[in-house]
């Protein structure tokens, strides 16, 4: 009865009904019903309404007429409120002791409930309707003897599956064991104009599920459970970090310079200021300004916007937590990352072993910690520390070790590397990253790809940086933060210079109008955030910082294959 059934608009199941009117809502007392012979097409089979465009338009027209009919009788089909005493789940829990056939005392245990009708059955003088609210489902038991003469006729003509209704009555468990509200009165609170998906087929069109998520959640209640778990994860993250003394702050979404990451930003124009502004691509640089200002433990949970590709792992807007702690280093952030993820797993699953797409993931601490150099050597046999600074030789050794069967796009990306550090990272992403299934901290990234991280205190050319990988996906990224303002300026200027070279090459290759509409990732402009560099010159304490992708964490904890499954309203292509 949980499944969504479309109630046929035909009169193949006439129900006698009586309507008691009020000035604000339709109140119905259930009454007798009679049955007619089943239509051709199967014994007792109810025909489901098609949801094609033409049929939906026809259904909508019929239901609009019902709205007018209600109003012509002085009834309001869109109520202002409803006094509820319980949710469906509360009733299931409170009255779980009732035996089959037993009823609570009506004068003592009167209840009032509200929700959406998702199923209906009628048998002679009885009608059974399934009502679903935010907590679960419960049956509405409507019986002729409890109600007046002709309400079922009006119930058939005015109430449809999908309507939001309220009901009052006592509690009864049927002879077959179904806990039910034994209905005394019944009210239409919101008249649904469009039919719900068929019970047996549901809403299966993937694109439509994302585009009309509200219907997806009605048709597939487990979808709503994903978003309840997401809320629980976000709540648990806040509890965890605040238990360690972190303070939540808010930083600008509209920024004068898009910094804190290397990504293509969304650009908008502020009319009053007469200038371009960027949707933030990270919260990092403003959170560090907070450390300069005297805060020692800060975090922000917020939306990030990147004007890049869409895939099962990427959405143009996504949610992260970024946090910064003065007087600590990246070792501290590894411990904090473990703490956050394990507490979230326990909040959702009450255990640290979980299944993700058929793979058993073990979150018991401590997690593996290994350097990028060692992981690449382990997977390929290449020891980058021994290759020296000759980039061309390093590329030849790499291509030889990876074999002739290496995909062409990977060969091209290796040939395009501009330094040994970039080459090391490219090999890691191609060979190692997909194999990091169990939780693994990858340590000590090359300085060339880590412009905001502190130089490693023992190994030249590396930084004190880690990324967390689970199921072959980056989950978190953290540094011992760079606090030397002159070093930071040199690195950011070099990053801008390298990007502008790529940008010039990209723009020079754009000839046609078609090409201009499909600019490459390098064709956007990057500017230096001079105000951030000014802030560093006032002095930022030694610190560590970490960013964790909440969407990917929720994907892991809800066994969701696509990021679109954990974002309520993901960005989609324009529907043709």
Distance between the termini: 36 Å
Instruction: Please list the strands of the largest sheet in the order they lie side by side.
Output: 8-12-13-20-19-18-17-16
Q: Ranges with pLDDT <50 over ≥5 residues?
A: 1-50
Structural category is alpha+beta
Estimate what percentage of residues fall within beta strands. 15-25%
> What's the shape?
elongated
Mean pLDDT: 87
Strands, total number: 20
Helix content: 25-40%
- Oligomeric description of these chains: single chain
List the total number of helices: 16
Query: Could you give a short account of the major beta sheet?
Result: 8 strands, mixed
Rg estimate, integer Å: 31 Å
Task: Please describe what this structure looks like.
The protein is α+β, with helices and mostly antiparallel strands. The protein is built from 16 helices and 20 strands. It has helices at 53-72, 88-94, 151-158, 206-211, 213-219, 221-243, 284-292, 330-349, 372-380, 391-402, 408-415, 420-432, 485-508, 513-517, 530-538, 550-558, and strands at residues 18-21, 26-29, 111-123, 126-132, 137-143, 164-173, 179-190, 247-248, 254-255, 267-270, 275-279, 297-305, 317-326, 353-356, 359-362, 368-371, 440-443, 465-470, 473-480, 543-549. The strands form four sheets. The protein has an eight-stranded mixed β-sheet with strand order 8-12-13-20-19-18-17-16, with helices on both faces. α5 packs across α6, α6 packs antiparallel against α8 and α9 (372-380) crosses α12. The longest helix has 24 residues, at 485-508. The radius of gyration is 31 Å and the shape is elongated. The relative contact order is 0.10.
């Amino acid at each position: 009865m949980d499944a969504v059934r479309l109630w046929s608009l035909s009169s193949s199941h006439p129900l006698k009904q009586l309507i008691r009117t009020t000035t604000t809502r339709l109140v119905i007392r259930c009454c007798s019903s009679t049955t007619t012979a089943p239509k051709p097409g199967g014994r007792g089979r109810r025909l489901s309404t098609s949801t094609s465009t033409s049929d939906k338009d026809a259904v909508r027209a019929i239901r609009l007429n019902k709205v007018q009919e209600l109003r012509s009788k002085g009834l309001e089909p869109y109520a202002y409120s409803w006094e509820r005493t319980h949710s469906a789940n509360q009733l299931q829990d409170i009255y779980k002791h009732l035996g089959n056939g037993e009823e609570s005392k009506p004068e003592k245990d009167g209840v009032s409930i509200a929700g959406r009708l998702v199923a209906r059955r009628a048998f002679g003088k009885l009608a059974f309707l399934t009502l679903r609210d935010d907590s679960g489902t419960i049956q509405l038991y409507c019986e002729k003897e409890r109600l007046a003469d002709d309400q079922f006729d009006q119930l058939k003509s005015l109430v449809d599956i999908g309507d939001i209704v309220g009901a009052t009555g006592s509690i009864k468990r049927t002879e077959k064991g179904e806990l039910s509200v034994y209905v005394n009165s019944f009210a239409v609170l919101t008249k649904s104009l469009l039919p719900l998906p068929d019970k047996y087929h549901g809403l299966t069109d993937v694109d439509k599920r994302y585009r009309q998520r509200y219907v997806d959640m009605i048709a597939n209640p487990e979808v709503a459970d994903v978003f309840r778990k997401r809320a629980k994860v976000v709540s648990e993250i806040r509890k965890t970090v605040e238990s360690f003394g972190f303070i939540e702050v808010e930083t600008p979404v509209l920024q004068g310079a898009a910094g804190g990451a290397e990504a293509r930003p969304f650009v908008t124009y502020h009319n009053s200021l007469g200038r371009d502004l960027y949707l933030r691509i990270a919260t990092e640089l403003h959170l560090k300004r907070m450390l300069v200002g005297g805060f020692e433990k800060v975090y922000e949970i917020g939306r990030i916007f990147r004007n890049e590709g869409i895939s099962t792992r990427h959405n143009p807007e996504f949610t992260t937590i970024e946090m910064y702690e003065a007087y600590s280093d990246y070792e501290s952030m590894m411990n904090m990352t473990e703490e956050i993820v394990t507490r979230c797993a326990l909040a959702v699953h009450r255990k640290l072993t979980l299944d993700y797409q058929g793979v058993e993931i073990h979150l018991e601490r401590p997690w593996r910690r290994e350097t990028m150099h060692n992981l690449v050597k382990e997977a390929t046999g290449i020891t980058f520390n021994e290759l020296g600074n000759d980039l061309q030789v390093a590329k030849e050794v790499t291509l030889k070790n990876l074999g002739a069967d290496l995909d062409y796009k990977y060969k091209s990306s290796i040939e395009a590397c501009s330094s040994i550090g970039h080459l090391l990272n490219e090999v890691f992403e191609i060979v190692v990253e997909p194999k990091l299934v169990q939780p693994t901290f990858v340590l000590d990234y090359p300085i060339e790809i880590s412009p905001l991280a502190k130089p490693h205190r023992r190994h030249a050319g590396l930084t004190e940086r880690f990324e967390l990988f689970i199921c072959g996906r980056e989950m978190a990224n953290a540094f011992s933060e760079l606090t030397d303002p002159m070093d930071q300026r040199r690195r950011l200027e070099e990053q801008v210079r390298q990007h502008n070279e790529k940008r010039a090459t990209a723009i020079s290759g754009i000839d046609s109008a078609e090409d201009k509409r499909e600019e490459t990732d390098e064709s956007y402009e990057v500017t230096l955030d001079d105000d951030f560099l000014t802030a560093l010159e006032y002095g930022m304490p030694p610190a560590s910082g970490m960013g964790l992708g909440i969407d990917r964490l929720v994907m892991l904890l809800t066994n969701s294959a696509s990021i679109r499954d954990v974002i309520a309203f993901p960005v989609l292509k324009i529907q043709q």
